[in-house]
Amino acid sequence: xxxxxxxxxxxLSDPRYRxxxxxxxxxxxxxxxxxxxxxxxxxxxxxxxxxxxxxxxxDHRPGMAAAGEHGVVAPLIEAGFRKADxxxxxRHLGLPNWDKPARACLSSRIPHGVExxxxxxxxxxxxxxxxxxxxxxxxxxxxxxxIARVELGEGEMARLSxxxxxxxxxxxxxxxxxxxxTLDLDGYRQGSLNPPLL
Length: 198
Description:
Blueprint: H1 15-18, H2 24-43, H3 63-69, H4 75-78, H5 83-92, H6 118-133, E1 139-144, E2 147-152, H7 163-175, E3 180-183
Parallel strand pairs: 2-3
Antiparallel strand pairs: 1-2
Helix pairs in contact: 2-3, 6-7
């Protein structure tokens, strides 16, 4: 019964965002929150909230500064919720997506300092969709030019002992526009492109 309002953002039109500095998320969230402030006023809401939780406080999250500047509240942080708490409550409530893997912004797949472009984002998205279609649940495809560095969730790399599945994974990544499909032996790690920034 909740009314859904869609607002279209244009972060790629901001050269600071496209330049992909270490604080890229700040520019994205600044644009997004400014847009949502206008939309909230238009439909009569006085407060914006977003889904940051306690686990986000220990990660590189420049967008949180933008939230603070725009007065956006984080009720999950205020309630003391971690990601595991949110999943447990969602499961208790019977929500079908209680264990859905995280899906971070596609720009996070591109190394900082490398320009974010629609073509790069589309290649990453196509590659990840191809891997999800093969039944992988937790995947990241990191863009490194003609090389796609594939990160798989814990326990999913064992599936690649199947030569046919390995071939299909490689084909899916190459069909997305990459020349090489590589597997990161460390597996999926949230923010694996962030360490140099911390």
